[in-house]
Structures are given as structure tokens and as C-alpha cells.
Design goal:
There is one protein chain. With 287 residues, the chain is of the alpha+beta class. 30% of the residues lie in helices and 34% in strands. The chain has 8 helices and 13 strands. Strands 1, 2, 3, 4, 5, 6, 7, 8, 9, 10, 11, 12 and 13 form a 13-stranded mixed beta sheet that branches. A hairpin with a 2-residue loop joins strand 8 (183-190) and strand 9. The longest helix is centred in the N-terminal third of the chain and has 16 residues, at 86-101. The protein is globular and about 60 Å long. The two termini are 34 Å apart. The relative contact order is 0.18.
Length: 287
Amino acid sequence: MISVENLELKKLNQDGVNTLVDWAKNEGWNPGKNDSTVFWKTDPDGFYGFYNDKELIAGGAVVSYNQEFGFMGLFIVRPDLREQGIGKKLWYLRRDLLIKRLDKNASIGMDGVVAMQPFYEKGGFNIAFRDERYECIGKKMDVSPNISPIKTEDLEKLFEYDIACFGYKRQEFLKSWFSMPQSNTFKYSENNEVLGYAVIRKVDKGYKIGPLFANNNQIAEELYKSCLNTASGDSVYLDIPTINTKAVDLVNKYDAKYVFECARMYYGQAPKVAIDKIYGITTFELG
């Protein structure tokens, strides 16, 4: 039995983040093969946990985006040590630490599993919308000639487009996200203007799309098809905000199957985002 009172919050190194992502795989969250590297590069000061005899026993992300917005994810207590109060203590310490890392009155986001949502609500978070994960099987299809891979010269335009959908700047994250091994990136453009983009990456089981942002349903479908093209015969997952009914229509059109759900929750004011452009969120771990 561990003495919860004596546990102290400590910053994780990259090995600690790797451990959290491995645990996430064991939990069935299906993280990407290279997610931990990107997460670490995004905010090396954004991961904390508890150690017992120098062994990590619980942890999570408290990532800051330019001190303007925070995100709590990857919250895991080692399975053999649950129901001892470790998670409760860790969660509140992480929340309070992240509040201190951010500008005054900055908001914090998270994606909470159904069973934990009442706990998070007691901690000051409010549900904004449900996220549902859907599984489809990749297959080859013809796609629009307006689709092309994201290149270095596209980055500034993609950064600007992303702000409308995420709500805040996250250039460091995106630069690493776009250049991950075992991934493909796509943009939809007309007259040199970006009208949507998507990333698909290898995960523990199959592939996962995230984000999938688009100006309208037709563009979203072309990006979705482009992603499915890269994973023919494999499972492809997409996490949709059900508040965008067009995203629901898209997964239904391709006979994607419901897997599980979370809820996007916010401490403070919800960011102003173009929800009608969000057909797939980026990650449950970092927003």
C-alpha cells in the first residue's frame, strides 16, 4: 500500500512520457507509434506524475500552448494501484499546476471518458460536446485533384487555417505532427488557398486520422477518402465532434462503426472555434 499523503508531483522526462503512451496503448486508447516524441517536443515542461521508489506510478499531461490555452490528457494511474486516491490527488495537483502555467483566466481543455466525467465536472470542467470514435476500413478511391501533400512552403497557411479550428496557435506541435514517420498529410486547396487539411498516422492498431478540418462536407469527404487510400484493408479511426452533424453524416456514409466516446470539456470559457469545420479532432491527449 502506497502512502498517498507522501506522494509529490514531479516533472517527467521523455522516458516518462514514453511510459505514459505505452500505458495508453494497454488501456486500449490506441496511440500512435510516434506520438510520444511529438508530445514531448510540443511542451517538455508539460508532463508530471508520481514516483514510488523511482518508479513511475501515475502521470499525465499539463500542456501549455503559449500560456494562452492549456490541455490535460494522458491521465493514467498504473492499474494495480488504482482506487487508493492516487488519481484524485494527481488530477487536482495537475489542474492547479496548469492554471499557474497559463495566463490569468486562460481556459483548459480535456477529453474525458464517460465514467470520469462527473469527477471532472466537480473539478470545474463543463462538457462542451461529445467526441465519438469511428472505425472504417481503408480502401482505394479516386480523389479530387485539389488534394496534395502538405509541404514546407504550406506551413504558414496551415498554421493560420488551424487557428480557426483549434482556437489557438500551436506551431511547434504542428511542425512535428506533419513530419511524423509512418504518416501522411493532405491539404485541399483552390487558387492557392487552403480550404482543409488532414493527417493520418500509424497507431497501435491500424491508422488514425487527426485532425480532419475542412470548409465544407465535400472537401472533408475528399480528405477522408485520401486518408482511406493510404490504409487499404486496414482499420482507420476518426474521432468526430458529434455537435457537427456533417461529421456524423460523413462517417455514416462510409459505414464506419462506433467504437467509444469521450466528451470535450473545458475549465473556463470554451475556445471560439469554427466547429462546422471540425470533422475530426487531432488527439484526445493534447487537444
